[in-house]
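Dear H.,

Thanks for agreeing to be a second pair of eyes. The structure we're designing against is below in token form, covering all 358 positions.
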């Protein structure tokens, strides 16, 4: 089995063309003739109407590549992943086109994606039994499935929270995929190496269209689906390689996971509705700060991703350096949590100082 299939480049080209067509379709307002609704969500930060269909194009490209390729080990894994995504494709696409799907409905769809994957996945799962608190669930009937499904749902929600800022969701995904690509190479795991490389190549057209100009976004379907895909690939890889500490998976996925947990705790502490969106996320704070000065107003969105680069690059760099040592992996997780807290405090202080001056 070869680790690189040149046929993937055809679908990279198709994906690029689809991105151009969708961006033009939205720019000319043709989408209104089909009854699609303008996005009015609280978290909207763009003046112009931006298509939220980058995820749909990504999935179409993945599906086409999976269907028309030889049934190698990596394609078999990809087909399992795509089959599992059916529930979120239905409700995520409806939300991106009509913006009328309740958050609770999307959570149910995410649960069924995890359930389908867990029931159809017949390979070895990562051993999480030694992780504090989490390991206790493995002693309960059904606890194993609950933990994996909950983890997939949490990470997917975290990816959805960061979508909307130019380049941020794509950068996080690229960081995770490059880390897994590196470790797949080091372990000579050709199946996951080929699968991950295909995902990276098909993600490139979206990244170029999304950053720095923000011409298209993943949307709910794309953010959820990409988060779920990354979760599944991570589960597959760490299950195939029990010699690598599962704490490494936590490190790789920590930014979106931290975003969800921190947001949940913040809303509970302030008695805010748990499922209602707000603009108190760390990336929104920086965006609001950059938007107010006239010299930064037009590029405010594009500035956030490089400012937060330490948060999405650090997990990749630290994992590549410490993947063979659980002690250093755990230390890197602690350092990230400190960095995330520091950045949140800095963003809050900067925004408060700016408001006082104005």
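And this is the sequence the design step returned. I haven't edited it by hand at all.
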């Amino acid at each position: 089995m070869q680790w690189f299939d040149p046929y993937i480049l055809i679908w990279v080209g198709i994906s690029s063309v689809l991105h151009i067509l969708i961006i033009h379709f939205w720019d000319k307002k043709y989408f209104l003739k089909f009854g699609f609704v303008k996005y009015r969500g609280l978290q909207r930060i763009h003046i112009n109407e931006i298509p939220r269909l980058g995820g749909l194009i990504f999935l179409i490209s993945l599906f086409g590549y999976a269907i028309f390729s030889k049934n190698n080990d990596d394609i078999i894994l990809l087909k399992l992943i795509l089959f599992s995504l059916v529930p979120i494709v239905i409700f995520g696409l409806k939300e991106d086109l009509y913006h009328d799907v309740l958050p609770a409905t999307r959570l149910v769809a995410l649960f069924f994606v995890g359930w389908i994957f867990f029931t159809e996945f017949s390979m070895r799962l990562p051993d999480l039994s030694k992780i504090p608190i989490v390991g206790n669930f493995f002693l309960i009937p059904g606890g194993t499935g609950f933990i994996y499904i909950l983890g997939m749902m949490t990470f997917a929600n975290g990816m959805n929270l960061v979508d909307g800022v130019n380049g941020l969701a794509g950068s996080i995904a690229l960081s995770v995929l490059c880390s897994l690509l590196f470790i797949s190479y080091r372990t000579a795991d050709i199946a996951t190496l080929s699968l991950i490389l295909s995902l990276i190549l098909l993600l490139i057209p979206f990244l170029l269209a999304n950053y720095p100009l923000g011409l298209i976004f993943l949307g709910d379907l794309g953010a959820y689906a990409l988060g779920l895909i990354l979760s599944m690939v991570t589960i597959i890889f760490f299950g195939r390689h029990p010699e690598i500490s599962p704490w490494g998976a936590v490190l790789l996925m920590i930014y979106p996971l931290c975003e969800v947990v921190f947001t949940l705790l913040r809303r509970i502490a302030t008695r805010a509705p748990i499922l209602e969106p707000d603009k108190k996320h760390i990336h929104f704070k920086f965006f609001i700060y950059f938007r107010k000065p006239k010299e930064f107003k037009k590029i405010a969105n594009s500035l956030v991703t490089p400012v937060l680069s330490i948060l999405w690059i650090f997990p990749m760099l630290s994992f590549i350096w410490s993947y063979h040592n659980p002690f250093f992996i755990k230390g890197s997780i602690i350092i990230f949590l400190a960095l995330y807290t520091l950045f949140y405090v800095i963003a809050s202080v900067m925004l408060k100082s700016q408001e006082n001056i104005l």
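Two observations from my side: Residues 8-357 form one domain. The chain has a mean pLDDT of 89.

Warmly,
E.
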